[in-house]
Amino acid sequence: MARSLSYITSTQLLSLARNPRVAIVDVRDEERSYDPHIGGSLHFSSESFSQKLPDLVQAVSGKDTLVFHCALSKVRGPTCAQLFLDYLSESKEDTDVKNVLVLEKGFNGWQYAGKPVCTCTDSPCKGTCS
């Protein structure tokens, strides 16, 4: 199945975020350890993203939509999303993922828009923050 990369706004993501078939993938690097994050998001640092692709596929088992982001979603978020798509295409991994999206304006835009953030240090985040 051919999958393509699309973008999603913070308002659109907010309405999808509680859907159990949606996974949010934060690819920020060291800033994830001291900045807030989107509750329930998975952290796969862009620095080691390529090596962790099999782990990501396993972590998103049963999900049909993945939303990638970094701080601004200008480089790391879209690059990792494309790497994920390429990996699925090349490896022929059996996955339920149908939609791969990038959060417009990244985490900074999400936070600036007043969307909810989490400050927990759980890994992975359980999404119980408000």
TrEMBL record:
Protein task: Possesses phosphatase activity towards p-nitrophenyl phosphate in vitro.
Enzyme class name: oxidoreductase
Tagged with keyword Oxidoreductase: yes
Keyword tags: Oxidoreductase
Cellular component, GO annotation: cytoplasm; nucleus
Record SUPFAM superfamilies: Rhodanese/Cell cycle control phosphatase
Protein name: arsenate reductase (glutathione/glutaredoxin)
EC number: 1.20.4.1
Molecular function via GO: arsenate reductase (glutaredoxin) activity; protein tyrosine phosphatase activity
Pfam families, alphabetized: Rhodanese (PF00581)
Domain of life assignment: Eukaryota
Catalytic activity as recorded in UniProt: [glutaredoxin]-dithiol + arsenate + glutathione + H(+) = glutathionyl-S-S-[glutaredoxin] + arsenite + H2O
Every Rhodanese domain range: 18-119
